[in-house]
Amino acid sequence: MHFLVYLLMHLVTISMTDTDAVCTQAVVEKVKSLVPDIQHIESVIPGYGKGNNYMSFVYRICVRFEKSKDLQWLFVKVRPKDESQVTEWADFQIAFGNECAAYGHLKELELPMPKCILENPDIIVLEDLTNEGYTMLDKAQGFNLAQTEAVLKKMARFHSNSIRLRKENPNSFETLCSRFQSLIPNFDKMPKDSEFYDKMVESIGEVEYDEIKVLLSGYKDGKLYDNVKQFLTLNKRNEDHELLGIIHGDCWINNVMLKVSEDDQDEKKDVKGSGSKIDVKFVDLQGIDANSVLVDLVTFLVTSIDFQVLIDHYPHLLHLYHKHLNLPHLELFRKLEKYKEFALPLFLYRALPTRSVTKEEYANNFRLFARFLRKYNFL
């Protein structure tokens, strides 16, 4: 049995875009009553295809505004209310509350995110980024070098602003932190039996390095999840940690949307970013929290980049992030050493199963990541 099929047998998930799960008309009326200046709602379609879990029901709604008479697409997220509609792996009430708080309170930290038209405990209405030319890239392929650089620059600026706020105005930082609750996956709901893990290792095939074989043998029987949980909680809200700031909390390719700026577009330029300026937006802000900024950095590097780009440019990417963090006295590279031990379990937990389908892809992706670990002394 394929590893992903086996995984789906263990995890209870739903399609959060199934329009049968909530009353579409009720959503339409809610939006029309709460968003000012809407003259008419032209159409409503599911936000994304079935099978994507966005921890809310999502819709794209085309509206006509009273004053401008212009048509505009909006992206609407509705909080599930029926417990039977949600998964068991995370707290949906916390997730939705965090996202509302993010749109209401993170503008000053310069986190690039969609424009929020409305946020309340039941519904969030955003600009539709796809209508503005933004796109979500293929997670199997990962970001190329230009795309990765664009994301790291924006991420570093957001992190830098949050660290500066903590250092220069600790009371304001504490108030901001109080608006968010920790959203840690419920690892107790994950399958602990060794057969689950063995299926993934079997899909990897032959492992080239003995030291990696030893590590793989140590992640059985739920220990993989223990490592990931330690990664997420190591410096969570630790005021003594030099790199404590506000983080996205789920910073990987599916939560980043890109577009080429209009001023830079011509027939030779596209979202691949070769020689062009790339705009970045971070989406799905349910995991916002106070934690080490290295959680975002390591998660992004391990899960979201073309593996060959990671092998060829890892030192450059770290220096680029450090440069745009613009906090020269912070010992980023020394602090990062502690997080190296989590790269492989995080890769196995998040990157390998989401970026691989065939057995050949499993084997090739693991081989490339193992080369990266070996080249940069992660082992």
TrEMBL record:
Q: Name the Pfam families on file.
A: EcKL
- Is Coiled coil among this UniProt entry's keywords? no
InterPro entries xrefs: CHK_kinase-like, EcKL, Kinase-like_dom_sf
Looking at the record, the residues that make up the CHK kinase-like domain are 124-332
Stored SUPFAM superfamilies: Protein kinase-like (PK-like) (SSF56112)
What is this protein identified as? Uncharacterized protein LOC103516893 isoform X1
Tell me where the signal peptide lies: 1-19
Q: Which keywords appear in this protein's UniProt record, sorted alphabetically?
A: Signal
Keyword Signal in record: yes
